[in-house]
Specification:
The complex is a heterodimer of chains A (553) and B (484). By secondary structure, chain A is an alpha/beta fold. Chain A contains 22 helices and 21 strands. In chain A, a hairpin with a 2-residue loop joins strand 1 and strand 2. Chain A starts with 13 loop residues before the first strand and ends in a 14-residue tail after the last helix. The chains are: A alpha/beta (553), B mainly alpha (484). At the A-B interface, loops of A face helix 2 and helix 9 of B.
Chain lengths: 553, 484
């Protein structure tokens, strides 16, 4: 089982160095410590294990080091920056692992950009040695790319000529959308195995500058300092430690799962579902920013977000055959609302900002989870504000109407807060409710008017916030029928249909990465020219030439 | 054969019909002044006005291809010379086996070919740069001449690679050709591409060791490029190999003469223990244990030049028909290697073991093995000199895993005997195995120029025969006022 939790003291592939406002994030991949057997992570190539550490490092820079304003991403190896995803790992991996791996790496690279845009953490890629494929895609996520001018270091996207796959971790998209490289130049660059260096690479906007070796270190430091001036992070705040999540496994006759402090996961393989239940806060929110900081990673919104994130990553990676995820919640709606208010009151505080952004990322992770998602708003649930976003991230949402006789819980209600109106945007750049109501502006207005009021099932349905409502006579049966029906569909077509229906509205770089680029890449990943026995991925490294079927599809 | 005559009418002597190839001629003539500048700035320091008795290639047939005569180095006729074209030559290995050799670069292999040519080309001027100060401490005019011969021929090899770049790789090739003149050995901003070529060659013993060990890597690389399906590359490298033989000769006889002088001096002084280092050094000769340390150093650095034991690039180049094996055509197999294996030394669970690997990806290892066999023969000839002198000592090549930076043993510490040890132990014993700064200082202390014809520094024996059958007191270099 792959565990997404780690700690800098356990890193095998990265080093973090902190020097007040500048942090060095150093990639130094240990070849023999691949997450799976059968390949060596040579030349700073990466696999999921390497990326899990990167994800952890980014979280720690955000939460544990608010003093960091600029991060220098560099290599700990002499002649290579990063060679990208490990080819042998990709060649040996199942299709689903490849897809899942790419999704996670994409999310992590997006989070680098989010850190730059919203957290005031600027990234500089100090590129020494070969920077190829996923290595260059990682650099592309940074704000400023400095390439050493030593006559040999270069940036390249060799996937197409070398492997017959796409630079699928945002590479193609960031070239044209972020760095606005001309399409013909991007075409040349992506079909030239050895890439570009020197002034030409600058002129083509592939990098920002190229600096001779003798001046490189000094220049990188100066450029990082300059970047740091664009940051609005606090200078005198203490970070909070991110401790290991409390998580215990359980197993009974029907299910396996984990109990976290505020989340439980119950996987029922026979039914084909995983139920994630979020338990609301058991204490009222603190009054001041200082108290929030004092609670640190035990502060309920942060704790819940981290636990939920861990559950999602676990399900995606370790429970590949579970097709339906059921979201439930339990707790005091008013209490959740109070926390949401608090987050708004202290929105300017760096820690609160990070917690809100973390929720945004977790919610996006839900959007991008290729399982059928359903929210059950049952008596005693607490889908309010931020938690209600989960409901709007789901493909279906069912709400219980009225009180249920055999249950001691209060009638199910749903409540909106300001956080449902722009605080957490989807990949398309707008809120989930805005996306939901693209064709019903009135519903959006009604929803906004209902803010801070608990809505019963009937009101929720009338505004259009839920798919359907059932009373206690029908509830269990309707839910069972839905789940059984859903599980009986083809998993492939469910994934495809859901991905198409979830992201209405505007296109952004992110939607293009997760939509167009990923879809094409996943298509290529299935094709014999890439993965067939004589395909480029399989033949790579064997010295044998791949054989292509040159029929255009 | 049309190509065997060298045309000396053009600025650039050649047997490739340059006068009819206006485009390439123009490109090369444009490159030429930059090359001469480079030679004057980065070639041998001093001696540019001296008359040096050099051989110049005048043909490409095996017999009588060179002509000897005095020439000032900047006026040397660096030419573009390809071995005669073999009619109906076919590709002898890889996926294109049996197809006609290419006279033009196949589009799909353009990048990989260019990279190979650039890497090969980069080593040629690099060694000239590394050796540029050695003329000033030459142990004799004979050795000085040999140094300059090696230097001008490395210069010609650069020309050979630049011709291929200019002729077959259009604008990219021109750019690379210019870059070859811009990089400098040991320069922090524009270093030469391979690490070893950025190290200093501080003294003559290092020069001999370098030409024996490191140029021999060059020889092996040329041997495998000589197999290339890209015919112009094959022909170019085949001719380069004829010149390269002299470089091997300079290295092997250079070290051999040092050994001989040491043994003679020991015998004259009645010293039998080769480890009686202080007394031996007092004789003004280099003790055999220090020679062993120098060999350890240069050998291990040269092994690194073969790259990783398991290499996808090598496999690709082979399958593409671009770079073959040493003596490819004499090897009795299918020349495809799809199903063959090759034994490779690897680190497995902290032990050095032999593992059977896919023969295609193990090509670097194979070439390295061929190199080791080739180098061992030379070491054997050195040992004959020691034996003949009656000294009890044997030079041995250290274990493959000793003092390595690249490949399977890059992160390990190993004794010359092949015993894995801790980093601490290695550092403790380092000066027993590799030249120390004291050793270097001692060797440096012997480096005084000897410029009278027929005389030799006390640490090196005279050669058995002269260059071009010249007598012992022949004036190989006529020093001008400025450099004398």
């Amino acid at each position: 089982m792959i565990d997404f939790q780690t700690h800098p003291s356990q890193y095998k592939h990265w080093r973090l160095e902190f020097n007040t406002e500048i942090a060095n994030l150093i990639m130094d991949v240990s070849p023999e410590n691949g997450i799976f057997d059968g390949y060596e992570l040579k030349l700073n190539s990466y696999d999921l294990g390497v990326d899990i550490e990167l994800y952890d490092a980014l979280q720690r820079i955000r939460f544990e080091h608010p003093e960091v304003r600029a991060v220098i991403l560099k290599s700990g190896k002499e002649n290579v920056f990063c060679a990208g995803a490990n080819i042998r790992m990709l060649a040996g991996a199942t299709h689903s692992h490849k897809v899942g791996f790419c999704k996670f790496t994409n999310e992590t690279r997006n989070s680098i950009e989010q850190a730059s845009n919203d957290s005031g953490i600027k990234f500089l890629a100090a590129i020494t040695g070969a920077c190829a494929g996923g290595g260059y895609e990682l650099a592309l996520a940074c704000d400023h790319l400095v390439l050493i001018d030593d006559g040999s270091s270069s940036v390249s996207l060799p996937e197409v000529p070398l492997l017959a796959v796409l630079p699928g971790t945002g590479g193609l998209t960031r070239l044209t959308d972020k760095r606005k490289v001309r399409r013909d130049r991007a075409d040349i660059f992506c079909s030239t195995e050895e890439g570009l260096r020197g002034e030409k690479a600058v002129e083509w906007r592939l990098i920002d500058e190229t600096i001779p070796r003798s001046k490189f270190e000094d220049h990188v430091q100066a450029a990082a300092k300059e970047l740091a001036t664009q940051s609005d992070r606090p200078t005198e705040s203490q970070g909070i430690a991110l401790s290991k999540l409390s998580k215990t496994a359980f197993k009974d006759n029907e299910a396996i799962g984990f109990n976290y402090s505020t989340v439980t996961l119950r996987v029922e393989p026979k039914v084909g579902t995983a139920t994630i239940q979020i338990i609301g806060p058991d204490t009222p929110p603190p009054d001041t920013a200082e108290e929030i900081a004092a609670q640190g990673d035990q502060f309920w919104p942060l704790r819940a977000a981290r636990e939920l994130d861990d559950v999602l990553l676990h399900l995606r990676t370790n429970e590949e055959t579970i097709g339906v995820i059921v979201f439930e919640s339990q707790g005091d709606l008013a209490q959740v609302a109070a926390y949401d208010d608090l987050m708004e009151t202290f929105a300017e505080n760096w820690l609160v900002r990070e917690i809100v952004l973390n929720w945004s990322r977790v919610l996006k992770r839900i959007d991008l989870t290729s399982r059928s998602l359903v929210a059950l708003i049952s008596p005693g649930s607490c889908f309010c504000g931020t938690l209600a976003e989960i409901v709007f991230a789901c493909d279906r949402s069912y709400m219980a109407e009225g009180e249920f006789e055999e249950l001691a819980f209060p009638e199910a209600t749903l409540q909106l807060t300001n956080s449902n109106f722009g605080r957490h945007t989807m990949s398309n750049g707008i809120s989930r409710l805005e996306t939901r109501f693209l064709g019903e502006p009135d519903s959006l207005t009604k929803a906004r008017e209902s803010i801070n009021t608990p809505l019963d099932a009937e009101s929720s349905e009338s505004i259009g916030l839920v798919s359907a409502i059932f009373d206690d006579i029908d509830w269990e049966e309707e839910i069972r029928l839905f789940v059984e029906g859903r599980v009986s569909f083809s998993a492939d077509v469910m994934t495809a249909m859901e991905a198409n229906l979830r992201f209405a509205g505007p296109e952004t770089m992110e939607t293009r990465i997760f939509g167009r680029l990923t879809a094409w890449q996943n298509w290529v990943f299935q094709r014999p020219n890439a993965v067939g026995e004589a395909g480029a991925l399989q033949r790579y490294g064997s010295g044998q030439k791949p054989q292509f079927d040159n029929g255009r599809v | 054969m049309e190509n065997s005559q060298v045309n000396y009418d053009t600025l650039i002597p050649n047997n490739v019909g340059l006068s009819e190839d206006r485009r390439v001629l123009k490109a090369l003539e444009k490159w030429h002044p930059g090359y001469i500048d480079w030679w004057k700035n980065m070639g041998p320091n001093g001696f540019q006005e001296s008359q040096v008795y050099l051989r110049t290639a005048v043909g490409v047939e095996k017999n009588g291809w060179a002509q000897f005569g005095y020439v000032k180095m900047p006026e040397y006729r660096w030419g573009v010379l390809l071995a005669p074209q073999v009619e109906n030559r076919t590709i002898s290995f890889g996926n294109h086996k049996g197809e006609a050799a290419w006279q033009e670069v196949p589009g799909e292999y353009r990048a990989i070919l260019r990279r190979l040519i650039v890497i090969q080309g980069d080593t040629e001027p690099a060694s000239v740069e590394q050796q540029r100060y050695l003329g000033q401490t030459a142990p004799s005019l004979y050795d000085m001449r040999n140094l300059f011969q090696v230097n001008v021929e490395e210069g010609r090899h650069l020309w050979a690679m630049v011709y291929l770049l200019q002729k077959y790789f259009a604008a990219d090739g021109r750019e690379e050709a210019n870059m070859l003149l811009q990089r400098r050995s040991g320069d922090i901003d524009k270093p030469r591409m391979l690490g070893t070529f950025n190290e200093e060659t501080p003294d003559w013993l290092s020069f001999f060791m370098f030409t024996f060990f490191t140029d021999r890597d060059g020889k092996m690389q040329l041997e495998s490029l000589a197999q290339s399906g890209f015919d112009p590359l094959s022909r170019t490298t085949r001719f380069m190999l004829m010149e390269e033989a002299h470089h091997m000769f300079v290295g092997e006889t250079g070290v051999g003469r040092v050994i001989q002088r040491t043994c003679e001096a020991m015998n004259e002084a009645g010293i039998t223990d080769p480890y009686d280092i202080d007394r031996i050094r007092a004789l003004g000769v280099i003790d055999l244990p220090t020679l062993q340390k120098k060999a350890n150093l240069h050998y291990s650095l040269s092994l690194d030049l073969f790259g990783s034991e398991i290499s996808t690039n090598a496999a690709n180049a082979y399958s593409a028909g671009i770079k073959g094996r040493y003596n490819e055509e004499k090897i009795d197999d299918d020349h495809l290697l799809h199903n063959d294996s090759y034994p490779v030394l690897k680190m497995v669970d902290g032990k050095i073991v032999t593992v059977q690997e896919n023969a295609l990806t193990a090509l670097n290892m194979r070439l390295r093995d061929d190199y080791i066999a080739d180098a061992s023969k030379g070491v054997g000839r050195w040992n004959k000199i020691i034996q003949k002198a009656g000294v009890e000592f044997e030079l041995v090549l250290p274990h493959t895993a000793f003092h390595r930076e690249i490949g399977e043993f890059g992160n390990t510490f190993c004794s010359p005997e092949g015993e894995l040890i801790s980093e601490d132990t290695f550092q403790e014993r380092r000066n027993d195995w590799l030249p120390s700064s004291d050793d270097g200082a001692f060797i440096q202390s012997l480096m005084h120029p000897v410029t009278a014809p027929g005389e030799y520094a006390g640490w090196i024996a005279p050669p058995r025969i002269g260059i071009d059958q010249q007598p012992g007191d022949f004036e190989y270099v006529q020093l001008d006022e400025a450099s004398a």
